[in-house]
Amino acid sequence: MDLVAWYEAYWAAKDDKVDHSRLDLMLAHIQAGQRVFQLDGGPGMLAERMVKERGAEVVITDLTHEASSRASAKGLNARQLYVAEQDIPYANASFDVVVSDSAIEHLFDPARSFDELARVLKPGGTFLLCLPNIAHWRYRLWLLRGRFPIVPGTPTDFTHLRFFTLHEIRQWLGDRHINIEHVDGSASLWLRNGFYPAWFRHPWVRPWYIRLARRWPTLFARDLIVIGRKKGT
Question: In the chain, which end has fewer C-beta atoms inside a 10 angstrom radius, N or C?
């Protein structure tokens, strides 16, 4: 399978709609003046907000020409890069922050992305990572019943090739000298495919579930947002 060609068609058919409540949680960890690198950032919805709202200097890549061209049209410093075949074209320790937002799970070799992001991150810099949480309570219940369904928009979306829990993320980052400082969670209550009962979106219930997802993300969050710090040298 030609993964790049597949995602060229994917982005050609997809608009810029995104879960901005999730992006809000990530933006909170970006500061004005920081030099940020985002890998596989699609058409740049998060990168654009990092520039406009947080005052960061952002470099963004995507494995497709389609997405990187759309990011460039937004005025972003964007280029096409398939990290499975190319190194990130910057020297070691070039960036204050590196970002991967809901991207690594789509690749055959996630280790390559972790390696390259850690390489270009400065000692003391921030590793900002968002990954779907396969240990969500819904999947725990399904597995207890002997099920593992593919559900669009969830941790087993058909585009996801790899699956992660916080335990594995901690190991992947620790092997690259990144210590986790904070873990947040996005509930993703926008999902309307049966993943959540409809009453979870009731105005009285919704804010409480969002609080649960942020307080105990490994159990209640659809997406884990992990903030790591690279050890100094």
Answer: N
Of 1, 3, 2, 5, residue with least CA distance to 65: 5
Cβ neighbours around 90 below 10 Å, total: 14
E-state strands within the chain: 35-38, 57-62, 77-80, 95-101, 121-132, 178-186, 223-230
pLDDT at 1 over 80: no
Whether this prediction's pTM lies above 0.85 is answered by yes
Strand partners, 78: 60
Report the pLDDT averaged over residues 146-152. 95
Rounded to whole angstroms, the Cα distance separating 218 from 220 reads 6
Q: Which two tokens stand for residue 102?
A: 């809901």
Tell me the domains of the chain and their CATH numbers. 18-59+92-230 (3.40.50.150)
Render the burial of 183-221: b for 16+ CB within 10 Å, e for the rest.
bbbbbbbebeeebbeeeeeeeeeeeebbebbbeebbebb
Q: Using CA atoms, how far apart are residues 94 and 123, in angstroms rounded to an integer?
A: 10
